Amino acid sequence: MCAHDMNVVSTASVLPRTPADVNGFLNIVFAGPGKFKSDQMGPMFRVRKDQIRSFLVWLKYHNRLYSDILLEPGNLMLYPSDDMLPELSDRVVENNKLDVKSLGRGNLDFRSIQRSFW
Q1: How far apart (Å, rounded) are the C-alpha atoms in residues 94 and 33?
Q2: Structure confidence by residue, pLDDT tens digits, 46-74
């Protein structure tokens, strides 16, 4: 379990948010041997610019709560056509001290993982 303080009151008046704004809400925790490589994430944080555009246009015209939201093409241009969210790899927190061999023995619990990070 991870808990992070977030500004849940933040209301967007312009969409999409910039990738830098979105990255401000995200952290990736990597626990394991070796250094983290962004290609290990697979499609988990994949974004597709055309899908974002289509969804926001649909949302604006089908949900009255979004009818006054400005759709900003300049922000959308900051996203890749089909790739990982830009600069997300800068948001990775690594822990290479975790003994992954103990995972197979069932000796690893939440507290030992937590201690290894702090």
Answers
A1: 10
A2: 899 999 999 999 999 999 999 999 999 99
Q: Beta strands of the chain (E only): which ranges?
A: 14-15, 28-31, 46-47, 70-71, 83-84, 92-95
DSSP assignment string, 20-50: HHHHTT--EEEESSS---GGGGTTTTEE-HH
- The pTM (predicted TM-score) of the whole model is 0.66
Which of 7, 9, 16, 84 minimizes the C-alpha distance to 54?
16
Distance (Å, whole) CA 19 – CA 45:
12
Output phi, psi for 25, to 5 deg.
Answer: -95, -10
Q: Which residues contact 15 (CB under 8 A, 6 or more apart)?
A: 56, 66, 69, 70, 71, 72, 75
Q: Which residues pair with 84 in a beta bridge?
A: 46
